[in-house]
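User: I'm new to structure prediction. If I give you an amino acid sequence, what do you actually give back? Let's try with this one:
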Amino acid sequence: MKALVTGANGFTGSHLVRGLEARGDQVVGLVRPTSDLSKLTGCQVELVKGDITDYNSLEKAMSGVDVVFHTAAYVELGLVDAQAMSKVNIEGTQAVMETAKKLGVSKVVYCSTIGIFGDTQGRVVDETFTREQEGFSSAYDWTKYEAQRIVDEMAQAGLPVVSVLPVGIFGEGDPHFGQIVKLFTDGKLKFWPGRDRVTGIVHVDDLVSAMIKAAEIGQNGEHYIISAGELSIGEMFDFISEKTGVPTPKEAPPWLIRLIGNILTPIGQLLNWQPPLSRERVHYIYDRCVRVDATKAKKELNWEPRSVQSILEQLVGQQLPSKS
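Assistant: Good question. You get back a string of structure tokens that encode the predicted 3D arrangement of the chain. For your 324 residues, that looks like this:
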């Protein structure tokens, strides 16, 4: 199989490139001219440099491929350039789907997010759930929702596309929680907000497995939630504490976190700075809760993810110094 991976140098994209190459597939990667390619060290991927919204670049990258994996996205919460995010997540997705249809690509797999469901207020939902939240929690929430709408419209128009909807993605090179765990295991994380916040997690290599299975046997137009399970942030920290002996971070008072978010937001806007806390991030910590059921992917894709416990054990092992 010859496959194109958009955003090939990113966290998910680079793991997907390695997963495809391990199968013996020929891989083309679309990356920006300024992209950091360090995550692709040692890979044989053929790189095409161009913008995700440039149809000429996309046609060049898709020429002769069997499957397109669209993982490129602008992922950020807090103070973001909504216009730039819209260009990547909405216009870029539109361009990828239209080019794939024009060239007659046999299958497209789109990496979406469970965020398209909006705030489920703690209810566990599956792929049949219709979004109820009025408005959007963030520019990311809005742009990924609109991108999914485009994908679904293209599916109805005959494009053979399947959408995978992952929860929080963990694994080697994780740019988000991996850094937090490192601070924790180094004894530098004394406080953390939102201990009761529930989050779903999946290992990036299991997401890769699900995406490849979606390309092989996923039904056109279908959505597949990708989650190994869920737990609260407090349970996660307690587990890591038990494994490392490092004390669990104390719960920061919600009133204080909300106050800091309210103070730092206008400062960040004034200085063009991304503060560690903002109103938007505080909203995600305390006010928004999306919970999902991944039974469909496990049954229809024959997908078997590793357990939440093994994901956390591996994550901790990556942060601890090796024993000589």
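You can read the tokens as a compact description of the fold. Here is one thing that stands out. The mean pLDDT is 95.
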